[in-house]
Design goal:
The structure is a single chain. This protein is α+β, with helices and mostly antiparallel strands and 98 residues long. It contains two helices and two strands. The longest helix is centred in the last third of the chain and has 10 residues. It is extended. GO terms for molecular function: RNA binding.
């Protein structure tokens, strides 16, 4: 670890010390190399498709669906995404039922 040094602002020292260690020296890499055999789950499927599950309260579902389903249809057309909403009594595994 390198010693902290004062910040220099407009050619003058502010007297505020900063840590000079590069940020990556204390953080784990974002992605492991392929040969490392990653154990993390990914949100990708076949052909590079991405899957994302978003939990929303049931009272907000109407805003996503829209009047007559117009909003959800528009979202799907504009983004190319497939949007699925679960039934009101279906809960995501591991979630509490308050």
């Amino acid at each position: 670890m390198m010693a902290a040094a004062p910040i220099q602002q407009n050619g003058t020292h502010t007297g505020v010390p900063i840590d000079l260690d590069p940020p990556d020296s204390r953080k784990r890499p974002l992605e492991a190399p392929p040969e490392a055999g990653s154990t993390k789950r990914t949100n990708t499927g076949e052909d590079g498709q991405y899957f994302l599950k978003v939990l929303i309260p049931s009272y907000a579902a109407g805003s996503i669906i829209g009047k007559g389903g117009q909003t959800i249809v528009q979202l799907q057309k504009e983004t190319g995404a497939t949007i699925k909403l679960s039934k009101s009594k279906d809960f995501y595994p591991g979630r509490c039922k308050n």
